[in-house]
Amino acid sequence: MNIIWQYLDKRSAAVNALKDYSSMAYILAHTDEEITQVHEDTTTLGSPAFTNMPGGSPNPQSGEMRIITAIDEIDVLRERYRQAKEYMEWFQPAWDSLSEDERYVLEQFYWQEEDAFDAISAISNRFHIERSSAYKRKNRAVSKLTLLLFGK
Fold first, then answer.
1. What H or E segment, with its residue span, contains residue 96?
2. Is 2 within a domain?
3. Distance (Å, rounded) from C-alpha 30 to C-alpha 137?
């Protein structure tokens, strides 16, 4: 094991992984649709614009360029999908290992659109605890997720 991994801020990495969960889930759910749409856009013909001006396409290879651009876009979408799948295979077991209460705390704090004050209030109200205890509960949940994701 490389020594640099000893100094990696694992807690920040766990929080960032937690924040990326929804975008990775979206990528996994919608990549096939996006690839299909790019493929359909590539195979449909554009309609000519009728004007009084003579000429044709300013670029005689515009059709080929459109196909090449679509192939590149599909490659990017497939690579994003591969990375999202790898992320889920790494993150989901750790997430599933957390208790329901720990998942609730992390969801409130990192997945909701509200600010930290609203998240702490929601956690305090659900568990009937003080704000300081809610912060401690959040910190324990993040620490446990970090341990599950990265080990010691």
1. helix 62-97
2. no
3. 34
Tokens of 22: 């929804």
The whole-angstrom separation of Cα 40 and Cα 65 is 16
Residue type, 64: E
Number of residues that this document lists for the chain: 152
Could you please report the per-residue DSSP string of 128-147? Answer: T--HHHHHHHHHHHHHHHHH
Q: Is residue 3 part of a domain?
A: no
Q: Token digits for 89? A: 């295979």
Distance of CA 127 to the CA centre of its chain: 29
Q: Is the distance from CB of 48 to CB of 63 less than 8 angstroms?
A: no
The pLDDT tens digits for 54-104 are: 665 576 677 788 888 888 999 999 999 999 999 999 899 999 999 999 999
Total domains in the fold of the chain: 1
Domain that holds residue 70: 10-150
The Cα 107–Cα 71 span in angstroms is 37
- What lies within 8 Å, CB to CB, of 152 at 6+ separation is none
